[in-house]
Specification:
Blueprint (H helix, E strand, L loop, with lengths): L4 H9 L12 H7 L3 H30 L8 H23 L1 H7 L10 H12 L4 H29 L11 H16 L9
Helix pairs in contact: 1-7, 3-4, 3-6, 3-7, 4-5, 4-6, 6-7, 7-8
Length: 195
């Protein structure tokens, strides 16, 4: 693809936000966004995982799967790389930030099956990104995911003080807020789009 890594990075945050334009990674986004602290912690973990696994999966794809003509294994291999890296990250967080580890609970290992992580790896292959573009896209997608979850967490914190109809409490109001945020991000789409 003929787009600079710099432009790709900013586009992944705003105009092609992995969560607000593709709606990938919604499960942990809706579940963890109740508290700002846990949202920030998970968001940073997602940035780190997206950046590193997009680089690792690019290397594996281009230096192992393509040369040995085993591209048909890419889904399985990508998931293995992601799972191994998330396991490593989980051990690090448990060791050096136990409070965050217990706050995130089950959602930290669920990063492995977060479809945003897997989607970034597939997009970089489908769109034929080079190594630098893949890292920029992974990092930008992670920052965009963090931005979205932090905005939702902040709005949900304010909504605790307000009256929300009982039928809309929880996931209902969160999905409405996410839809409104997604429409707001559409305003950035005239700048640059990556497809």
């Amino acid at each position: 693809m003929d787009i600079s890594a710099f432009v790709l990075f900013w586009a992944a945050i705003f105009t092609s936000n992995i969560l607000l334009t593709n709606f990938l990674g919604m499960c942990s986004y809706l579940s963890v966004s109740r508290e700002i602290e846990s949202s920030a912690g998970l968001g940073v973990a997602v940035i780190f995982v997206l950046t590193v696994t997009s680089a690792l999966n690019w290397l594996v794809y281009n230096y192992i799967l393509l040369p040995f003509d085993i591209v048909y294994l890419q889904y399985i291999v990508f998931i293995i790389v992601i799972a191994a890296f998330v396991q490593f990250l989980e051990l690090l967080i448990e060791r050096y930030a136990p409070a965050l580890y217990y706050t995130l609970g089950i959602f930290l290992p669920l990063i492995t099956v977060n479809c945003a992580i897997f989607g970034v790896s597939l997009f970089m292959i489908i769109r034929n990104y080079n190594f630098l573009q893949s890292i920029a896209f992974g990092a930008g997608s992670g920052i965009g995911w963090l931005l979205a979850i932090m905005m939702l967490a902040g709005i949900r914190r304010k909504l605790k003080e307000k009256m929300v109809p009982q039928g809309l409490q929880g996931a209902g109001i969160s999905l409405i807020i996410t839809g409104i945020m997604a429409m707001g991000f559409v305003g950035f789409s005239g700048i640059v789009q990556i497809q």
